[in-house]
Design a protein that fits this description.
59 helices, mainly alpha, 838 residues, elongated, single chain
Amino acid sequence: PFLLEAPKPNLPEQAMLQTKVLEINLVTYPNVADAILANNMFTHYDRPRVAQLCEKAGLYMRALQHYTELSDIKRVIINTHAIEPQALVEFFGTLSPDWALSCLKEMLSVNVQQNLQLVVQIAKEYTEQIGSKGIIELLESFKTYEGLYFYLGSYLAFSEDPDVHFKYIEAATKTGQVKEVERVTRESNFFDPEKTKQFLMEAKLQDARPLINVCDRFDLIRDLALYLYNNNMLKYIEAYVQKVNPSKAPEIVGALLDVECDEEFISNLILSVRSLLPVEPLVAECEKRNKMKLLTTFLDHLVSEGSTDAHVHNALGKIIIDSNNNPEHFLTTNPHYDSEVVGKYCEKRDPNLACVAYKRGQCDDALIGCTNKNSMFKLQARYVVERMDLDLWAKVLDPESEHRRQLIDQVVSTALPESKNPEQVSVSVKAFMTADLPNELIELLEKIVLQNSAFSGNPNLQNLLILTAIKADGSRVMDYINRLDHFDGPAVGEIAVGSELFEEAYFIYKKFDLHVPAIKVLLENIQSIERAHEYATKVEEKECWSELAKSQLAGGNVKDAIASYIRADDESNRDAVIAEAKKSDSYEDLVKYLKMVRSKVKEASVDTELAYSYAKIGQIGQLEEFIVSTPGVNLQSVGDRCFDEGIFEASKIIFTSLSNWGRLASTLVKLEQYQAAVEAARKANSSKTWKEVCFACVDKEEYRLAQLCGLSIIVNADDLEDVSEFYQGRGKFEELISLMEAGLGLERSHMGIFTELGILYAKYKLDKLMEHLKLFSNKINIPRLIRVCEEQMHWKALSFLYVQYDEYDNAATVMMNHSPEAWEHIAFKDVAVKVSNA
């Protein structure tokens, strides 16, 4: 008791005492020592010494807890029979990864069978610390698949390492855990399929399900089929196809066919899954191996069950084609097969059958390719014509196509002439036009239109033939015009004109009795007035005469133009006709034309022009009659024009009719009928007219008549000077003086007359001046006469005028300065008295 109580304070200086206590107990009472150590009563004792004593006493767990050297631990740890497993497991938690691995290896080295379970338990517990790789390598080094199986079984769920999963499958296989192998191959996504497949094949398990799982999941079907067949595991093949994955049956069948498996087995296998099978890949597998016939029963079953799957019918068609069992009937009547697939299958066997299939499915590119390849251009031409597809036409008529010419030849020679469908012909023609093949189109249309065919009388095709020839070969157009009767004359003729085929256009219009367009071509394009005249005479249509008249008028041939307008009974272009007739002075023809116009329209302008035309051609009598009978004529305009152009007789009649006395007076002057002119002037009573007549009479020395006119003028002070200047300008002084003297006695005489007469006396008749001044000094304009007398140096008259004007200074000055002429003694005395500047 003392020895146990003394070291209890557990102080460092008690280390020896603690060691001694443990030594005694380990030698004599190991259980007591174990209890002391378990209670951790002492901590300062000599641990290596105690470890050795524990080992000798059989307390291996305590020894392990006290040893610090790996060699000591390895030596002790192999005593697993005497160590409590859980304590040992916990102990491994205190070791480093390397030491732990080393100890595990030591345990397996001593006794694999005894220690394997414990090692696996420790490995599971400390996988993260130790590392799975090291553990696996350890277990593999001892080839303990059981250990691997148990260890990896716990670790597998947490690992994505393909190697770990494979090793687990391997270990499970080696240990006979087939169900586990089946499960993992079915559920795991991380093993290497190829490696696993190879391993399982080599393992040759009686249960093929794990291998089936791998091959099915990773599409290794061919290898699976070959393995199962070679190992006589046919029931697994049936099970796989029927229950696991029927969709992989085609690959199974292909593989079995490659190894020459019994065809009856294969056929039964196929029939066992029937509708679950994917037909297309199955057919492909059999077709590759030339074993299509094997599928006959299977396909017949599907068809009898009402299958409309194209793949089923494709396969059936291929079998029928290979067996030559009336394939054409199948290809034309079966609605379900894929034309392109079956057609391609036929190509190498029978191109004609291929074309039947392609035609049924409208496989344009395939059919064109097949017919090109096999030079079947007649068939191709018929197909393209019947197809009526412009896009297809564009492909076959592509300039880059090396087969274009052959196709065109067959279309022209066979396909279209055979056709009875107008739509087919229309589309074909349009395609040739779109492809810009005018010469070929002509060739085609000639075949259809000119030869006896169903479309010979087709207007559209006849139009097209002519139009194409217009565009491509104008030399053929006239022949077509003569041979064809149903084309659209107006439209084709217009296009011919636009293409400068004028003769052809003329004959088209002529053929269709389109007289106006025909004559227009002659006039505007061919420019032959003569031919146009002949044509108008022949057809005798008013519209033709009108067109001819327009051209004649435009060419300056007014006479003929008017004649044509009259024959056309056409007044619509009257303004132009009148203008051209005036320009060319063709008034006789214009009279005829205007008479026709008056019969159709009632217009003052027409009547006016007719009146003028009568005047121009001198038909005065008709003019008078026309004026009387036609109230709407603008006679003033006509009269003025006649006067301006010197047609005075006509003017006289017109102005008389209008009572335009002024213009009549002017006209009579021009006619030198002065007496009548004076009478007209009197009626006009216009200063202007009086002056005109007066001056004319003066010029013609009709002084009496001139004076009659002049008296009516000079009473107007404003006009007096004009008359005086006119007379003086022509030296008619006496006549002027006579006129003025006559004017003195007029009721309307005025200062201007008296003054002007005084001026005339001063200039031309001095002897009458003083008398005139003395008589009329109160009626004259004295300042004006003063200037004139001063200019003429009539001093006596000047001094008299100054006296009359009360300018006595000027009068006295004149008398004194010009005394020889102006002096009068008595008069001077009277003036002298009155001067203001003495």
